[in-house]
Each structure stands twice: as C-alpha cells, then as structure tokens.
Specification:
This protein has helices spanning about 10-30, 50-55, 115-130, 145-155, 160-165, 185-190, 230-245, 265-280; strands spanning about 5, 35-40, 60-65, 70-75, 100, 135-145, 175-180, 215-220, 250-255. It is an alpha/beta fold. The two termini are about 15 Å apart. It holds the Pfam family BD-FAE.
Length: about 280
C-alpha cells in the first residue's frame, strides 16, 4: 500500500492502534509478558579512547523477556544534532517489540560526520547483539524523530556507514523517519557557515542516496503549514524521488494539525503499523 500526500486523522490512528493492540493480545493469549530495561550500554568499539565517547555513545534496550524473534526499533532522539537525550517512547512500550534508545555525540563538540558514524555504530551493535536478548536480527528498524530521523535515513540509505562495521544496510527491515531532513542537515550546513534557509543536497543528504533497492522507507511529517521550515515538502520530494528511482515500498504520511514536535505522538501508531506489516510471516 503506497500513500502519497496522505492526510492521517487522529480518529483513524486511534482505530488502527486498537486493532493492533487487540491483535497483539490475541497472539499472546494469557501468557504474561514482562519487559526488561538495560541501560547505558557502550556501543562503540573505541569507547576506551575518548571520555566524550564514553559519556555519549551509550544505548538503552527495552525488550520482552519471555518472547523470541521479536522486532526491534532503534530509536534516535531529536534535538538538531546539538542536544537531546535518549528515551524509550511510552507509545512503544509493552507492544511485543524491543526498543533501543540511542545517545550520540553533538555539534559543536564534534563535527560532521561523527554523529552519523555514531548512529551506524549503534545500529551495528544491535545487529550483533539483539539475538542475545531474544530478538530477530532480520527484524531491525532504524527510526527517529527530526535529527534522529535524519540519522536513521542517512545510515539506511548510504550503505557506506554500516559497511564500516560489517553490516549491510539492506538487512534493515525498514527505515521509519519522523520529520527528518531529506536535504543536508541544517547543523551540518551551520558548521560550514551556511544559513538554514539555504538548501544543500550533497553526500550528507538522504536525498543524495535514493535507490531502488533500499529497505522499505516510511516518511512521516507534521502538517505542512505547521512544520519546521519546508520539512513536509522535503519528505514529499524524498518520497517522489524514491519512486522515480524505482523503489516499491516507500510511504508518505502528513499528520494534519500537528507541528514538528507534536507529530511524534501520533506518528508512533504509524510506526507500529508498519513494523507489524513488514514483519508478518
């Protein structure tokens, strides 16, 4: 199901969530499921070499203890690549999936591409270790909001980042990008002295790496009249160019009435829907 310029209303989202929860409950039956949270795991192999890496390059993993072969959502927080903190979204808790919340380094303390490399290292860690917690390495999704969505899209589209860690980006079950830049990120432009109203598309833009053989791509944007700068239009062009390149599984949603920050809450319902659909046997 491909959706172009889709207006997604809260009532529809609510019914989708009810259906998803009922289906998950039916699958679980009466067996109780408990969830475990393990915090502040260092994910970089060079963690001993740098105090800032030890501080920032950590992740939390939240997972269902009794389950096996569950999907995993790797969640990158927003904050413009200059701030923010990892968290397990409430909307993704107790949904039969694992959530890996990732911290990464910030500009200006580091410069591009350090934070992109952090995102790749974190995703690679999940591929290498999720089986130890019961998860299926074939069901890993790169996701995030704003700067986090940008990182997920960059690492998922430009295969060179994960190749550094021995992982093929096409092993991702999907990329779910909440209102992330499709052009080169504004903080990367600021590091070069370029204002945030000057769009650039270079090798640090997800748009630069559109390809037909990428993992399924889900783009979720807030209301075009309420979003930050031209974020909806970036997402719409990203969607169109992926289609032009021949990609068969790209989806675009616009959340009416929600601005850049508020769109994440209803966006989680879309995320759960696609995780469920893309991991069906």
């Amino acid at each position: 199901m491909t959706i172009n310029r889709k207006r997604y209303y809260p009532l529809v989202i609510g019914w989708c969530l009810v259906a998803f929860v009922l289906a998950a409950y039916a699958q679980q039956g009466t067996t109780p499921v408990t969830y475990q949270l393990v915090q502040n795991i260092n994910y970089r192999p060079d963690v001993a070499d740098d105090d800032y890496i030890r501080e920032r390059c950590v992740l939390d993993i939240y997972y269902p203890e009794q389950a096996k072969d569950f999907p995993t959502v790797v969640w990158f927080h927003g904050g413009g690549l200059t701030g923010g903190e990892k968290f397990i979204p409430e909307e993704l808790q107790e949904k039969g999936i694992a959530v890996v919340a990732v911290n990464y380094r910030f500009s200006p303390k580091v410069k591009n591409p350090a934070y992109i490399d952090d995102a790749a290292a974190a995703i690679a860690w999940v591929f290498q270790h999720i089986g130890e917690y019961g998860g299926d390495p074939g069901k890993i999704f790169a996701t995030g909001h704003s700067a986090g969505g940008y990182l997920a899209a960059m690492v998922g589209l430009d295969k060179s980042w994960l190749q550094r860690y021995g992982v093929d980006a096409d092993q991702l079950a999907g990329i779910i990008d909440f209102s992330g830049h499709a052009i080169t990120h504004m903080t990367i432009r600021a590091e070069r002295g370029i204002k945030d109203t000057q769009p650039i598309v270079d090798e640090y833009a997800p748009l630069y790496h559109v390809r037909s053989d990428a993992p399924p791509l889900v783009l979720v944007s807030g209301d075009r009249e309420l979003e930050m700068l031209g974020r909806y239009e970036e997402s719409a062009y990203f969607y169109r160019m992926m289609k032009v390149a021949g990609h068969q599984q790209v989806y675009l949603y616009e959340l009416d009435g929600f601005d850049h920050g508020a769109m994440a809450a209803p966006g989680f319902h879309i995320l759960l829907h696609h995780v469920n659909e893309l991991t069906k046997k």
